[in-house]
Structure to design on (1719 residues):
C-alpha cells in the first residue's frame, strides 16, 4: 500500500554502495599500464587482458587460488566436523556448565591474533605444521570454532525437542539422533556456519603470512600481498588478482545467500 | 602447485638442503638463473627459498619470527644493513670471521664491510649496496640552464623556477618526489636532510639521541616549510619507493630521491615516459656542508642454528663472488659490493651513472647502529612523520619526548657492551 | 525443557559421556591453539624479554610492563584512537546494517541478487579491499579524485596524507566491508518478528516510521546487540587495514593498538611489552563484551529460556 | 458505535478467489459472528474490514461512509488477534496506551481510560507486567483491554479464544458476552467454534469456501438451516443427512435412499407429484428417539456400532444397512454394540432439502 | 502386550514437586487415560514412563520388570507426541521405518509391517509424501502408524488429538477406539479433554497438581466421584457444588449454606447426629429439572441470569441468592433472564461429600 519509492532508492543505494569499488577495480583490471597511470584517470578501459595474463602466469595466481580453496575448504570441513557435535551437545544435551563453555569459547575468540600468533607458530614448528596446509588450517579451525558453534548451537536449540525424544523412543542413541535427525534438519544453519568459516579462512592474512613462507603453499591474500615488488605499485595485477580472487566467493554468495539468511534467522538471534 | 621439498623423505644420497630466506626478488629470472648455476656447480646441494613480502620490515618480522623461535631449518638469509647489531646481539647470525678472511674482505667496499661488523666480529657478507641519490630531469634543467643543485636551497630555487615555467604545459608537474610515508624509508630520507644540515640522529659514542639539536630541527623545518606543499605534493607522506619513482617516471617531478636501482627503471622506455632524460647526482648539501647519502644495502648471513654452515658459506661466497655480483649488476642493475666492479668497462657502459655514483656509494652514511634499532627507528619514524603531517606542530618538545624514549632504549643496550 | 533428559543413573552417565565425547575435540583444539597461546602471552606479559638485548635476560617482572604501558603516551594515543575507531565503525556498521536489513527484508523481484550484491564486500579479502581503497583514494589516479574534481588535476587531494582523512578512510573501509555482515545478523532478527505485531500497530494507528521506531527497533535489540558484540570484537583487533593501507601513518594518525602491539612484538622484539599490549586489548574487548553479554544474556545460548 | 456494511466484497490472492461477492449488514450494536471451517476466508474478510488487506472488488461502509481507501488507522476500529499480538517489549499498561499515544490522546485521559478498562477486565494487578509474564487468559484480557481503551466504532475479533483451554474458554465466553452487553458496541467476531458462535452472537454469518451461506440468528441457523451445508455444519454431533429421493406413495410420501425407506407425511405445500431426486433428509441426533414417541413419527431399524457414554449423555453410532446414523440419548440406556435397535424419527424434527434448498415440509 | 505398574513415583524439577507419590497399575490390554488440568503433570508422568525424564523416586515396572535404569530405546515402548514429531526430512514410509531400522529389523519384514499399518490406517497413498505435505489428520495417522509398526509392549499418547479441529477430532477418536479394540494392546493416553477421556478409556486416572485423585472407569468417575475435585472436574458444564453443612432436622436432615437451605432424606448409613460443617452438596446441571418430578426431590427458588441456547440444548445460569446454579435443559424452554424460576433437585441425583470424601447418602 505504501509508496515503493524509498525502497527503490534503498535498493539502488545498497547495490551501488556495495559494488562501485569492486567495479572500479574490475575496470582497472581491464586497463593497460598507461591508462592506469593516466592523470586524470580514464573512465573506460581499453579492455586489455594483459594484467590477467601476468597475474595468472607470472604470479601463478591459480596456484594461490588452489591453495586457498584447499585451506578454506579444509578449514570449513574440519570446523563443521568438530563444531557440529559440540554445538549439539551444548544446545541439546545436559552438560554441566555449558553456559561457561559457550562463554569461554567466545572469550577465546576475543584474544588478539597477533598475541597468539607467536605461540601458535611455536606449536606448529614443533609438530612440523609450518608451511603445510593443515598447519594453517588448525588455527583457523580453532579461531572459527566459536562462531560456528554459536550459530549451530542456537540453530539446534530452535529445533523441536519432541523430535529428539521421538528419535530416542525410536531407539536412537545421542549420536544417531544427531546424525540421523538433527543434522539433516540443521542444514541451513550448517550452510551459514560453513559460509562464515569459509570466508574467514579465505580472507585470513596474518597467520597465513607467518605460517606459509613457501610459494608452494601460500594462500591468496599472501600471494596478492607478495605482488608488490619494489619498482611500481602493480595496480593492474592487483586489480586483476582481486577480481579473480573474489569471483569464487561472489558465486558462493549468490548461490547460497538464501541459505545464509535463513540459517542465521533460525539461529543466532532468535530469542 | 609443485611438491614441497622435504629432506627427511628423500633418501641418503639426496642432496643437502640449504634453506635460503629472502624477500620477493625484483628480478625473479635473474635469481632463478643464479640458483640454477649454483646447483649445477654443487650437485650435492639444493637451495630452497622461502619468500617474504618485499617490504624490508615485513621481511624482518618474518625472518626474526623464525630465528627467535630457534628454527634450525633456516640456513642463509639476507640482512638489511641496519639489522646486524640486533642479529648479532640476539645470537641469530653466526660470526663469520673464520670463514670471511681478511684477504677476501679486501675486495669489498669498506662502508659495506663496516655495517656487517658488531663488537669486532663480522656477521654478514655484503651482497649489494644502496645509497640515496638525487635523480633529476636533464631536459628541464638544461632548458632553464641549471646544473644539478649543490645545496637544498639551490634545489628549491631551481624547482620553483622550472615549475613556474612549466605549470601551464604540465599542471601535474611537481618539484620533488621522495619517500615520506611513516616507515623505515622516512628515516633514510630525513637522515640525509639532517646530515646535510650538519645534524646527526644519535651520538653513538655517548649513546644519546640528538633529535632536538637546532640543526636537526632546522632540517625538518626546511622539509615541511620549503619542500612539502610549495614544491612537493603532501602526497609524499603516503609514498614509498614505488609511488615516488612512479611519479618521477611519469614525468611529474623535477627532482627525485631514490636508490641506485631507480636509474634502470627511469631510463627504461617500457616503464618510464622520461627515459633518456634522467640524470643522477649526489644529494645536495647546505652551505658549507656536503650532501649526505644514507647507506643501504643487504648482507648475507648464516643462521647460528644452521646445521649446514659450510654448505651455506659455499652458497654465500658464490652469491657474493665476483662473477655473480657482476651478473646481478648486469641483469638487475644492482649496485655491487665489490670495488673492482665499479671499474668494469662493460658494466660502466651498461650503467654510466656509476661513474658519478661511485663516490656517493662509497662514502654513504650508515644509520645508527644499535641492537634495538627497530625500536629506535619506530620512535624516529613517529617523530618525523608527525612533524611533517602536522605543519603546526611544535617540534622542540616533540623532539625531546622522542629523545627521551630513545635514550631509555639506548641505556638498556649500554649494559650490553663487553 | 533443556534437551533430552536421561532416563536414570546409568543412562544419565551414558548420555553425559556421549555429550562429553562430542565436545572434547573442540575443547582439545581450543586448548592447544587458543588457550595455550593465550596463557603463553599472559605469562610473557608478566616478564621482561627484549630480543635485541639478551643481557636483560628473560625475567619475571610482575606488572612492570603494564605500568610502563600506563605511562606510554604512544599507547595512550593508540588506545584512544582504537576506541574511537571501534565506536565509530561499529555504530556506523550496525546503523547501516539496519538500513540494509530493512531493504533486504522487503519483498521485491531480484531480491536474491541484491542480497548477493550486499554480501560481496564482506566476501572480498581484507587485504585486497584495503588495496582497493588505497587505490581509490590515491592522490593521482584515484577514483575519489576523479569523481570530485574530474580533470582539474591540480585540485586532486592526497587523501591519505591528511591524518584526519586517513583515519576517516580506515573507518570508511571497515564500515563498507562489514556493514553487510551486520545487516545479515539484523535481517535474521527482523525475520523473527511476527507480522501480527505490525498489523496490530497499524490498527493502533502507527505510521510506518512509528512502527519502525516503536516496534521494530525495540524487538531488534537482541540482534543489534549480537551484531555489536561480533563487530566490536573484530574492530578492536583491526590490523590488516592499517597494515596494508597506512602502516599507522601519517604521523601515527592510524596507529591502532593492535598494530602498535604488532610492531613492538614482531619488529622491535619486545616480547613482554608486546604481550602486555595484546593482553590489554583483550581486556578492553572483554570488558565491552561483558556489557553486551549482560544485556543479550542467555538469549545467545538457545533453549533454556524458550 | 457504528454499523458496518459490506457490498459484494471479493478478494483474490493471485488467482485463488478467497472471498466471493460477500454482502453483509452489521447493524449498530450487534454482535456478529463470522463462522466457517478453517481456510474458508474468515480472517481474510475480517482483515479486509480492518483495512489490513484490500478487497479486489466491492465496498466497505462504516456508518454509511465508504472506507475503501482509508488505511487501518483512519477507520477507527480495534482488532483482537488470534495470538493477541501484544507488544512483547511493552508492559500491559503501555500495550494498552500505545494506540492512544499514537493518536495523541492527552496523558491523564489515557490513564483514566486504562484504569477503567483494567477494572472492567480485572487486570489492574497486571498493568506493570510484560506479556510473557501472563497466562493465556490474562493475555486474552489484555488484548481485549487494548481494544476497549480505544473506544472505537467497531470491534473485530479473530478467534480470540482459540488458544485457551476448555475451562478458561467458557469463562472468557461469558465475560465477552457481558462485555458486549455493557459496552453495547458493534462487534464482528471470527471463530470456527460452534459453541462460541451459538452462545456469543446475535447474528451468525456462515462462510463456506469464501461464499456466504446463511446469515441469521443462531437459533434460526440451528433450527431452520437454509441448505444441507449449514445443516451439517452446526451441532455436535452434526445432523444426520440422508441422500436420496422423495416420491408420493399412497396417501403419504416416502423418502427413499440406497438402504433406507422412510414414510413421510404429505407436504404442507403444493409440490408436483412424481419422484424428486437430489433430496436430502436431515435429522439431528438429539431429535432421534430410541423409544416410541407420542407424536407422529417414522421408525427405522438399525444395529448399534459404537456406544459412547459421555456421562452426561450417550452418543450411539448406528447403521441402517449402509446408512450410518448418529443418535444422542440420555446415559445408561440399555443398548449394546452389534445389537439391533429400532429408532423413531418425529416428523416435526425432519429437515427436507430439495435441490440443496430447504423446504418446510411439515 | 504388557502390563505397567508405577510404584509411588515422585518427580521434582528443582524444588517444585511435579509428581507426588503416584502409584498406578495398568493391566495388560487396557486403555488408560491420564486426565488432568493443564500443568498438573500428565506429560511429565508419561515422559517418565517413557524414560525421557527420570523419576526422583519410585519404580516403574513393565511386565513386572523394573525398567528404571533403561533408556527409552530399551523399554520397548512407542510414543505419539502432541505435535506428532514426524521427521520432516523423511517420507512417511521412512518415518515409519525409522524405529525398525534402528532396531535392525530385516528389510522385507519392515516393508510388510509398514504395509499392514498403512492399510490399517488407510494411509497407503501417502507413504511417499513428506510430512509437510500432509493435513493435520493425516499426520496424526502417520504418527500413529510409526508407533504401530514397532509392535511395542506399550503405547504412550500425549494429547495426540489436541491439534485437530472439532470434526476431525471426533472422527480420529472413533478410529483410535477401533484401533485399540483391534490391536488389543496396552495404551496410556494423556489428555485434558473430558470427551476423549470419557469415550476412549476403559480406565481414567485423574491427576491434580501431581497427585492421583481417583482411578476408575469413566462411568464410575462420572457418577460416583470420590471427592469434590473429581466431581467438579468432569462434566460440561461442571457439577454444581454447594458448600455448607448438614444437620438433622425433624425426621429428615437438611443442607444449609450461606444463602440456600435444602431438605435432605435421612442418610442411608449411621451418622452421628449434630451438624457436620465442611460439607459439599453436588448436583449435575443435567440432573436439575425445571419442572416438577415424580421421584422424591427438593426444590429451590432461583432467578435466571443468562440463558445460553446451544441449539441442541440450553444452559441456564441461575442464582439462588448469592449461590450460582447451572442447569442444562432441552432447548426453547420458556425461561427469560432475570425472571424467577423454581428448580427441582432429585434426591437420587445428589452427591454429598463430608470432609472432602464422598458418602453414599441415599
Ligand atoms: N497472503 C495470502 N496469500 C495467498 N493465500 C492466502 C493468503 N492468506 C490467506 N490465503 C488463503 O486464503 C484462504 C482463507 O484464509 P483465511 O486465513 O481467511 O482462512 P480462515 O478462515 O481464517 O482459516 P482459519 O480458521 O484457519 O484462520 C486460505 O485458503 C489461505 O490459504
Ligand atoms: N523441564 C522442566 N523444568 C521445570 N518445570 C517443569 C519442566 N517440565 C515441566 N515442568 C513443570 O511441571 C508441571 C507439569 O508439566 P506437564 O507438562 O507435565 O503438565 P501437563 O499436565 O502436561 O500440562 P499440559 O496439559 O499443558 O501439557 C508444570 O507446572 C510445568 O511448569
Ligand atoms: Mg483465521
Ligand atoms: Mg502436556
Amino acid at each position: 500500500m505504501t509508496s515503493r519509492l524509498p525502497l527503490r532508492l534503498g535498493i539502488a543505494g545498497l547495490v551501488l554502495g556495495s559494488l562501485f569499488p569492486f567495479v572500479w577495480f574490475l575496470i582497472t583490471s581491464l586497463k593497460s599500464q598507461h591508462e592506469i597511470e593516466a592523470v586524470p584517470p580514464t573512465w573506460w578501459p581499453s579492455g586489455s587482458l594483459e594484467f590477467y595474463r601476468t597475474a595468472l602466469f607470472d604470479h601463478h595466481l591459480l596456484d594461490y587460488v588452489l591453495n586457498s580453496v584447499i585451506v578454506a575448504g579444509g578449514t570449513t570441513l574440519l570446523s563443521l566436523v568438530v563444531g557440529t557435535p559440540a554445538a549439539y551437545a551444548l544446545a541439546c544435551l545436559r552438560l554441566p556448565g555449558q553456559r561457561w563453555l559457550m562463554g569461554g569459547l567466545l572469550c577465546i575468540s576475543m584474544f588478539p591474533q597477533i598475541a597468539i600468533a607467536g605461540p601458535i607458530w611455536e606449536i606448529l614448528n614443533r609438530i612440523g605444521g609450518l608451511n603445510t596446509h593443515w598447519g594453517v588450517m588448525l588455527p583457523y579451525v580453532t579461531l572459527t570454532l566459536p562462531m560456528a558453534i554459536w550459530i549451530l548451537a542456537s540453530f539446534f536449540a530452535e529445533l523441536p525437542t519432541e523430535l529428539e525424544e521421538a528419535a530416542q523412543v525410536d531407539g536412537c542413541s545421542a549420536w544417531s539422533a544427531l546424525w540421523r535427525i538433527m543434522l539433516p534438519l540443521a542444514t541451513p544453519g550448517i550452510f551459514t556456519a560453513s559460509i562464515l568459516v569459509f570466508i574467514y579462512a579465505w580472507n585470513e592474512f596474518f597467520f597465513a603470512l607467518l605460517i606459509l613462507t613457501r610459494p608452494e603453499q601460500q594462500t591468496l591474500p599472501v600471494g596478492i600481498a607478495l605482488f608488490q615488488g619494489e619498482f611500481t605499485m602493480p595496480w593492474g595485477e592487483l586489480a586483476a588478482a582481486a577480481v579473480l580472487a573474489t569471483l569464487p566467493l561472489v558465486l558462493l554468495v549468490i548461490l547460497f545467500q538464501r541459505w545464509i539468511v535463513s540459517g542465521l534467522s533460525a539461529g543466532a538471534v532468535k530469542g | 602447485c609443485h611438491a614441497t621439498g622435504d629432506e627427511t623423505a628423500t633418501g641418503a644420497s639426496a642432496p643437502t638442503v640449504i634453506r635460503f630466506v629472502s624477500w620477493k626478488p625484483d628480478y625473479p629470472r635473474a635469481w632463478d638463473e643464479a640458483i640454477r648455476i649454483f646447483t649445477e656447480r654443487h650437485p650435492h646441494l639444493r637451495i630452497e627459498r622461502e619468500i617474504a613480502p618485499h617490504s624490508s620490515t615485513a621481511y624482518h618480522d618474518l625472518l626474526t619470527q623464525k630465528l627467535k623461535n630457534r628454527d634450525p631449518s633456516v640456513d642463509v638469509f639476507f640482512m638489511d644493513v641496519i639489522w646486524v647489531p640486533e642479529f648479532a646481539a640476539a645470537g641469530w647470525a653466526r660470526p663469520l670471521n673464520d670463514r670471511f678472511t681478511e684477504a677476501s674482505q679486501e675486495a669489498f667496499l669498506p662502508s659495506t664491510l663496516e655495517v656487517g661488523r658488531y663488537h669486532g666480529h663480522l656477521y654478514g657478507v655484503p651482497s649489494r649496496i644502496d645509497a640515496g641519490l638525487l635523480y633529476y630531469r636533464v631536459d628541464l634543467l638544461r632548458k632553464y640552464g641549471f646544473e644539478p643543485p649543490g645545496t637544498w636551497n639551490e634545489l628549491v630555487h631551481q624547482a620553483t623556477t622550472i615549475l613556474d615555467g612549466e605549470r601551464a604545459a604540465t599542471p601535474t608537474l611537481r618539484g620533488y618526489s621522495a619517500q615520506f610515508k611513516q616507515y623505515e624509508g622516512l628515516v633514510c630520507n630525513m637522515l640525509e636532510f639532517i646530515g646535510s644540515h650538519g645534524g646527526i640522529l644519535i651520538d653513538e659514542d655517548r649513546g644519546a639521541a640528538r633529535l632536538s639539536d637546532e640543526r636537526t630541527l632546522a632540517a625538518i623545518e626546511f622539509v615541511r616549510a620549503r619542500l612539502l606543499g610549495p614544491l612537493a605534493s603532501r602526497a609524499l607522506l603516503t609514498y614509498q619507493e614505488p609511488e615516488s619513482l612512479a611519479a618521477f617516471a611519469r614525468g611529474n617531478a623535477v627532482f627525485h630521491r631514490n636508490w641506485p636501482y631507480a636509474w634502470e627503471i627511469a631510463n627504461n622506455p617500457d616503464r618510464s615516459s622520461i627515459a633518456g632524460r634522467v640524470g643522477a647526482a649526489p644529494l645536495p648539501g647546505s652551505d658549507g656542508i656536503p650532501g649526505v647519502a644514507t647507506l643501504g644495502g643487504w648482507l648475507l648471513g648464516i643462521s647460528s642454528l644452521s646445521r649446514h654452515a659450510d654448505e651455506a658459506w659455499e652458497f654465500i661466497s658464490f652469491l657474493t663472488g665476483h662473477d655473480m655480483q657482476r651478473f646481478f649488476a648486469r641483469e638487475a642493475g644492482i649496485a655491487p659490493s665489490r670495488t673492482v666492479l665499479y671499474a668494469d668497462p662493460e658494466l660502466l657502459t651498461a650503467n654510466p651513472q656509476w661513474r658519478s655514483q661511485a663516490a656517493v656509494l662509497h662514502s654513504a652514511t650508515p644509520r645508527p647502529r644499535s641492537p634495538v634499532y627497530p625500536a629506535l627507528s619506530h620512535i624516529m619514524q613517529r617523530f618525523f612523520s608527525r612533524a611533517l603531517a602536522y605543519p603546526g606542530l611544535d617540534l622542540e618538545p616533540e623532539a625531546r619526548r622522542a629523545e627521551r624514549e630513545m635514550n631509555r632504549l639506548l641505556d638498556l643496550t649500554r649494559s650490553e657492551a663487553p | 525443557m533443556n534437551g533430552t533428559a536421561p532416563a536414570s543413573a546409568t543412562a544419565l552417565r551414558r548420555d553425559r559421556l556421549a555429550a562429553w565425547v562430542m565436545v572434547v575435540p573442540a575443547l582439545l583444539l581450543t586448548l592447544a591453539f587458543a588457550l595455550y597461546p593465550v596463557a603463553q602471552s599472559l605469562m610473557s606479559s608478566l616478564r621482561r624479554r627484549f630480543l635485541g638485548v639478551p643481557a636483560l635476560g628473560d625475567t619475571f617482572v610482575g606488572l612492570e610492563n603494564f605500568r610502563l604501558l600506563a605511562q606510554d603516551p604512544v599507547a595512550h594515543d593508540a588506545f584512544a584512537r582504537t576506541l574511537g575507531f571501534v565506536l565509530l565503525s561499529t555504530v556506523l556498521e550496525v546503523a547501516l546494517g539496519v538500513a540494509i536489513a530493512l531493504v533486504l527484508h522487503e519483498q521485491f523481484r531480484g531480491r536474491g541478487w541484491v542480497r548477493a550484491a550486499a554480501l560481496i564486500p564482506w566476501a572480498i579479502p581484507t587485504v585486497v579491499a584495503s588495496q582497493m581503497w588505497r587505490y581509490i583514494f590515491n592522490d593521482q589516479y584515484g577514483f575519489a579524485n576523479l569523481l570530485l574534481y574530474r580533470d582539474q588535476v591540480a585540485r586532486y587531494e592526497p587523501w591519505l596524507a591528511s591524518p584526519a582523512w586517513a583515519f576517516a578512510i580506515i573507518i570508511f573501509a571497515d564500515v563498507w566491508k562489514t556493514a553487510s555482515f551486520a545487516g545479515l545478523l539484523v535481517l535474521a532478527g527482523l525475520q523473527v518478528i511476527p507480522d501480527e505485531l505490525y498489523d496490530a500497530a497499524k490498527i493502533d494507528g502507527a505510521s510506518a516510521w512509528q512502527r519502525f521506531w516503536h516496534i521494530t527497533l525495540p524487538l531488534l535489540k537482541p540482534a543489534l546487540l549480537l551484531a555489536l558484540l561480533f563487530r566490536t570484537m573484530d574492530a578492536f583487533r583491526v590490523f590488516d587495514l592499517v597494515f596494508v593501507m597506512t602502516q599507522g601513518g601519517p604521523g601515527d594518525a592510524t596507529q591502532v593498538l593492535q598494530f602498535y602491539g604488532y610492531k613492538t612484538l614482531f619488529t622491535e622484539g619486545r616480547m613482554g611489552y608486546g604481550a602486555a599490549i595484546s593482553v590489554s586489548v583483550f581486556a578492553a574487548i572483554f570488558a565491552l563484551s561483558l556489557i553486551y553479554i549482560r544485556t543479550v544474556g542467555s538469549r545467545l545460548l538457545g533453549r533454556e529460556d524458550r | 458505535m457504528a454499523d458496518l456494511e459490506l457490498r459484494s466484497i471479493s478478494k483474490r490472492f493471485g488467482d485463488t478467489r478467497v472471498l466471493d461477492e460477500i454482502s453483509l449488514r452489521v447493524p449498530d450494536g450487534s454482535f456478529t459472528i463470522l463462522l466457517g471451517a478453517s481456510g474458508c476466508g474468515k480472517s481474510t474478510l475480517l482483515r479486509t474490514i480492518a483495512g489490513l488487506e484490500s478487497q479486489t472488488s466491492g465496498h466497505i461502509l462504516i456508518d454509511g461512509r465508504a472506507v475503501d481507501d482509508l488505511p487501518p488507522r483512519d477507520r477507527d476500529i480495534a482488532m483482537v488477534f488470534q495470538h493477541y499480538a501484544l507488544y512483547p517489549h511493552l508492559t500491559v499498561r503501555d500495550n494498552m496506551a500505545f494506540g492512544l499515544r499514537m493518536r495523541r490522546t492527552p496523558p491523564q485521559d489515557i490513564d483514566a481510560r486504562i484504569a477503567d478498562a483494567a477494572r472492567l477486565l480485572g487486570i489492574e494487578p497486571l498493568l506493570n507486567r510484560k506479556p510473557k509474564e501472563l497466562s493465556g487468559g490474562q493475555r486474552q484480557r489484555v488484548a481485549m483491554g487494548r481494544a476497549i481503551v480505544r473506544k472505537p466504532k467497531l470491534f473485530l475479533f479473530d478467534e480470540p479464544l482459540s488458544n485457551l483451554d476448555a475451562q478458561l474458554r467458557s469463562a472468557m465466553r461469558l465475560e465477552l458476552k457481558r462485555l458486549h452487553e455493557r459496552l453495547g458496541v458493534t462487534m464482528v467476531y471470527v471463530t470456527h467454534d460452534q459453541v462460541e458462535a451459538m452462545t456469543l452472537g446475535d447474528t451468525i454469518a456462515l462462510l463456506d469456501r469464501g461464499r456466504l451461506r446463511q446469515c441469521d440468528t443462531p437459533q434460526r441457523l440451528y433450527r431452520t438451516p437454509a441448505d444441507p451445508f449449514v445443516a451439517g455444519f452446526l451441532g455436535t454431533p452434526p445432523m444426520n443427512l440422508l441422500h436420496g429421493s422423495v416420491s408420493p406413495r399412497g396417501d403419504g410420501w416416502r423418502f427413499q435412499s440406497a438402504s433406507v425407506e422412510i414414510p413421510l407425511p404429505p407436504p404442507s405445500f403444493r409440490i408436483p407429484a412424481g419422484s424428486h431426486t437430489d433430496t436430502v433428509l436431515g435429522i439431528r441426533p438429539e431429535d432421534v428417539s430410541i423409544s416410541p414417541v407420542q407424536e407422529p413419527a417414522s421408525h427405522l431399524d438399525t444395529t448399534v456400532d459404537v456406544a459412547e457414554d459421555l456421562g452426561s449423555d450417550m452418543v450411539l453410532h448406528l447403521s441402517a444397512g449402509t446408512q450410518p446414523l448418529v443418535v444422542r440419548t440420555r446415559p445408561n440406556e440399555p443398548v449394546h454394540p452389534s445389537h439391533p435397535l429400532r429408532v423413531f424419527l418425529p416428523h416435526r424434527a425432519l429437515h427436507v432439502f430439495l435441490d440443496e434448498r430447504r423446504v418446510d415440509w411439515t
